[in-house]
Amino acid sequence: MTFTGLKMNSPASIDERSFRKLLSRNVGLPLAVGVLSAALFVVMVSYLLSVIRWVEHSDRVISNANDAVRLTVDLETGMRGFLITGDEHFLDPYAVAKPQINVQLKGLQELVSDNPQQIDRLKRLEALQDEWNVYAQSMVDLRRQDGDYRSAVQAGRGKRLSDEIRKEYDDFIQMEQQLRMARSEDVSRTTIICIALYLCFVLGLSGFLAYVGRRDLIELSNSYNNVFESQIKTAQRLEQQAWLRNGQTELAEQVLGRLTLNMLGRNILQFCAQYLGSVVAAVYVREDHGGLKRVASYGFSREQEVQDQLIHNDEGIVGQAAQQDKLIRLDNVPADYSLKVTSGLGQGSPHSVLVVPTSDDDRVNGVIELGFLRPLSARDIELFELIADNIGTSIEAARYRQRLQEVLAETQQLNEELQVQQEELKTANEELEEQSRILKESQTSLETQQAELEQTNEELAGQRDAMDRKNTELNRVQIQLEDRADELQRSSKYKSEFLANMSHELRTPLNSSLILAKLLSENPQQNLSAEQVKFAESIYSAGNDLLNLINDILDISKVEAGKLEVRPENTSVGRVVEGLRGMFQPLAGEKSLGFDVQVQPGTPPMIYTDSQRLEQILKNLLSNAVKFTEKGQVSLVVSREPGEGVAFAVTDSGIGIAADQQESIFEAFRQADGTSNRRYGGTGLGLSISRDLATLLGGSITVSSEPGQGSTFTLVLPEQYVESAEELAQLSATAAPRPAPAALRSQPLPVVVPPVEIARFMDDREQAPFATRCILVIEDEPNFAHILFDLAHELGYRCLVAHGADEGFSLAAQFIPDAILLDMRLPDHSGLTVLQRLKALAPTRHIPVHVISVEDRVEAAMHMGAVGYAVKPTTREELKNVFARLEAKLTQKVKRVLLVEDDDLQRDSIARLIGDDDIEITAVGFAQEALDLLRDTIYDCMIIDLKLPDMLGNDLLKRMSTEEICSFPPVIVYTGRNLTRDEEAELRKYSRSIIIKGARSPERLLDEVTLFLHKVESQLSHERQTMLKTARSRDKVFEGRKILLVDDDVRNIFALTSALEQKGAIVVIGRNGREAIERLDEVEDIDLVLMDVMMPEMDGYEATVEIRKNPRWRKLPIIAVTAKAMKDDQERCLQAGANDYLAKPIDLDRLFSLIRVWLPKMERL
User: Fold this and answer.
1) Exposed, middle or buried by CB within 10 Å (0-12, 13-18, 19+), for 934?
2) Other C-beta atoms within 10 Å of 1108: how many?
3) Which of 666, 677, 909, 1132 gives the lowest tally of CB atoms within 10 Å of its CB?
4) What is the pLDDT of residues 794-804, one digit of tens each?
5) What sign does the dihedral 263-267-268-270 (CA atoms) show?
């Protein structure tokens, strides 16, 4: 209310007349000055416009004078040119300028009509010009008449006239410029004087107004300041009162409730910390004996907490405050004050300390000690004076509640003790009565038991003698069994060692024989006759037969030793059956036998078993059926066997088996009879191994047969493989079990997902050979495949449809379509796999492939040779564009290649290498030229060198990806530089084809160009076909890779080196483990190690361990190679640090596959 009253009365203190005077002066004078300024500026602008018009007049006069000078120069130049050359064309400027000069002079006289001096000068110019015209006309006439014009020219009359004319023009122009400058100076001077006078006037008037206004405003401001200061003081007084009342309210909230002394003290200190900003504090309460005890603290360290919590009367500042009942204030506390402020970053002393006594009914009952980091203010003291009595009342109430609780607890404890004592007495009486009854019964029972024990002792004595005799006999039998078990274990060990060693001795020479026979049968150099190739194939076949015999013997030994490992997995029944169909249908066809495979309705699509062992059993049964059947057919029927699992029935119409021999054929090295064995060959191990494997998988094999009527072998396996207790015991007994199978067993059985049947429809394959172009559609979605099929017919194409990767590749190889539409997501393989297989096969390599898929794999597909990529979903127009793009590719007569190479010799040799009738090669030596061409022309392929004169090839590729060009073509990098892995990775963003110039690089370059240009390989010259075969005999993954081959057998070294070098690898040889480590030290960039296990000096296990100890080689891929094929060898290799394991004799395809898996992923062409 006070503030409002002051605000309403404040205008009375101001002189209203002075305020109005100030207002009118500050408004009226600026308006008058504004009007005066406007008038002055109007006058100034009018004056300046007038002067500007005169300046423009002078500029126009000068410009016209310059035009007249130019015309004079044209007259003189035309005349001189004609005199020198005699050519009439030189008189054209002369003829044009002659009539214009007089007109120009007349115009100048009109412009300067107000200047007599300039008029006279123009008249003189006119006379001189007329005289010069007469002279010039005479010279022209003399030249036309071939007169002596040179003498007249040399007389100098023409030069004199020209000089006078120029002088007059210069004087005329100079006078005009002087007039213009004079006018400019006049206007500048006049403008400066006017503006200066006006500024002086404005500044003087402004200064006067500022002085008078400042004086009045200061008086007005002082009046307002006085009022404002009184309002601030009132507000501060009200704010302090509100702060004190708020503090009392918040403290009352903190002490409400039934609090103990400790809780009350903590709440009071928390209030002080939050409201007043105290950083350390304590509450002391008076005890009954008169001393003070600390009941709560705030901000104390652990050391301060454990200090003495009692303060005696009159002790220290706290005791004095309690005795005097007076608030004590300490400012500027010294650094060694006992009350410390502690935090996680350090500790220090408070700046100020306040000790406040609390009282109830004028009797001190507590003290509060507070520490502050700031100086204390008057309102702090005032607040504590107001709340001290309230705190004292709260402390007294808490002490009273505490005494009541103590008395209540003592009373309750006494009652509980009395009840417990009463219950104990009652229980003791009952126990005594029960014990006396039991004692009586026990006495009677003990007498009866004593008589029985005497009789039992006599019987036990006789039984003890009999047991001693039996134990002696059992100990003797146990010793004999242990000796027999040891003997069997040694025998099994000797047998396993013998088989392993024999395996090594047989596989080592067999390994080199098989590898060399395989290389000879492939005939990569085409230097062997057909008969020699057939001999090599026979050697390879015989070696494989010997290998199969060794494997059968090892399988029997593994089963007998309990070391054959089962690896169950989800196995597709359909895939297993189709694989067997593809394997045995050609074999049955060679013997003119029918071969039928059926999967009965209701057969589960997936079973959980070891797929490798399942296929091994079925292959044995089917090979026996084909071998022992001369005519008729062989069939495989798969069906569900209720209550047992899945039945695989192999039926043949062969020689049959007598009933008394149907059990013996499952014995090792036995067949139906000796004659059959000699007639049909074989070892007689297949059925024995098959029955053992079936038992191991939880199934069985049964046979039903009649001699001459054929046989039926039925394999029954459970749908879910479950390990038996015996197998678990065997696995737990073997040393160092593999973790992978254990992990599989610990998991729940996987859920079998039935395959989705794809709806098929008839395509045009029955109409082959085709009269028109044929399109192959590889698409697993039936609806979309049918859309493409109909659109192909609409556009005049024949169409083949495949719903899987393998089926699509087979159709492409069989029918060689003109183009292919390929999906990426196929049920059996990725579309990229199909594309890679198509481009790797010579007959299908040239076929244009366009991808249509939901997956965005554009870059990978285009680098692998696809002509286009469309992302689903697509419209009908987009699909028509796809067909149009394929048609354009099929009808394209000339393929364009852009060659970027700065070396002229290299450029010519590359052009000759890839040139053909239908190839147009554009060769440039600079990267900028290539960019200019790419902006206007679409190229089918581009070959670049990395080292170009104006920029690096890497930079050219980057600019191609960012700048506007017609199309980014497939790029082949053909360079002589050895690239680092980082450089290769950067180039892979733009090109998958990187060829290092060398001995085999032309073949590689030709191979890549034919891929991107879709050239039909069979239509190339014989020389180029040979180059392509040479290029493909070398694998991209192997090219330039260094492989360390560690083996002590010269035959194996020779065979493996030959095979790897044909693939393009560089082989480094080590004869034993020690040499292997030395080679790794010598050759830094080895990519992979093939490590034999059995070697002198240092074997493969020890060498692998030593290699892994070196951090440099910790990630180096190592593939162990050994002739031993027992499980323990594989475990030892993996435990030593090998990445993978391969048994001799080495299958080259498996070896190359393993090397592709473990080689570093960067590839070189």
Assistant:
1) buried
2) 16
3) 909
4) 888 889 999 88
5) positive
pLDDT at 1007: 61
How many angstroms separate the CA atoms of 194 and 213, rounded? 28
Give the β-pairing of 868-871 and 569-572. Answer: unpaired
Strand bridging mode 633-641 / 645-652: antiparallel
Strands in 382-436 per DSSP E = none
Closest Cα partner for 396 from 385, 404, 407?
A: 404
How many Å apart are CA 1138 and CA 21, to the nearest integer? 106
Radius of gyration of the chain (CA): 57
Nearest 5°: the CA angle 361, 363, 368 is: 110
Which residues are bridge partners to 898 per DSSP?
Answer: 922, 942
> Residue holding tokens 């103590």?
406
The C-alpha atoms of residue 778 and residue 804 are separated, in whole angstroms, by 7
Phi-psi region of 755 (alpha: psi -120 to 50; beta: other; left: phi over 0): beta
Which tokens hold the place of 920?
A: 């147009």
What would the pLDDT profile of 397-410 be if each residue is shown by its tens digit?
888 888 888 888 88
Phi, psi of 641 (to 5 degrees): -105, 105
List, in sequence order, every residue forming a beta bridge with 1045; answer none if it has no partner. Answer: 1069, 1090
Residues 1082, 1084, 1087, 1091: is their CA dihedral positive or negative? positive
Q: Residue 312 has what DSSP assignment?
A: -
Assign 364 to helix, strand or coil: strand
* Coil, strand or helix at 1090: strand
Long-range CB contacts for residues 535-539, cutoff 8 Å, separation at least 24: 539/513
Joined tokens for residue 957: 């590729």
**Residue 998's closest CA among 977, 971, 979, 983?**
977
Q: What is the rounded distance in angstroms from the CA atom of residue 138 to the CA atom of residue 82?
A: 13
Its pTM surpasses 0.90: no
User: For the CA atoms of 1033, 1035, 1036, 1041, what is the dihedral angle to 10 degrees?
Assistant: -120
Tell me the three-class secondary structure of 844-911, residue by residue. HCCCCEEEEECCCCHHHHHHCCCCEEEECCCCHHHHHHHHHHHHHHHHCCCEEEEEECCCHHHHHHHH
Q: Which of 818, 824, 804 lies closest to 870, judged by CA?
A: 824
Which residues touch 810 (CB under 8 Å, ≥6 apart)?
802
Q: Are 391 and 283 in contact (CB under 8 A)?
A: no
Say which residue, 803 or 4, is predicted with more confidence.
803
Q: What distance in Å separates the CA atoms of residue 450 and residue 457, rounded to the nearest whole number?
A: 11
Find all residues with CB under 8 Å of 58, minimum gap 6, and list them: 176, 177, 179, 180, 183
* Cross-strand bridge partners of residue 706: 710
And the tokens for 760? 């098929």
Strand ranges (DSSP E) for 564-644?
Answer: 569-572, 594-599, 606-609, 633-641
How far, in Å, CA of 489 to CA of 495, rounded?
A: 10
**Nearest residue to 775 (alpha-carbon basis) of 784, 788, 787:** 788
Q: Decide if pLDDT at 1096 tops 90.
A: no
Q: Are 694 and 617 in contact (CB under 8 A)?
A: yes
Confidence of residue 979 (pLDDT cuts 50, 70, 90): low
Environment class of 125 (CB within 10 Å of its CB; exposed 0-12, middle 13-18, buried 19+): buried
Question: What order do you get walking across the sheet with 868-871 strand by strand?
Answer: 798-802, 774-778, 819-822, 849-853, 868-871
Say which amino acid occupies 977: R
Most distant CA pair in the chain: distance in Å? 185
785 closest CA partner among 754, 813, 827, 816: 827
Angle between helices 686-696 and 611-627 (to 10 degrees): 150
Q: Are 1046 and 1068 in contact (CB under 8 A)?
A: no
Instruction: Record the tokens describing residue 1121, joined without a space.
Output: 């190679």
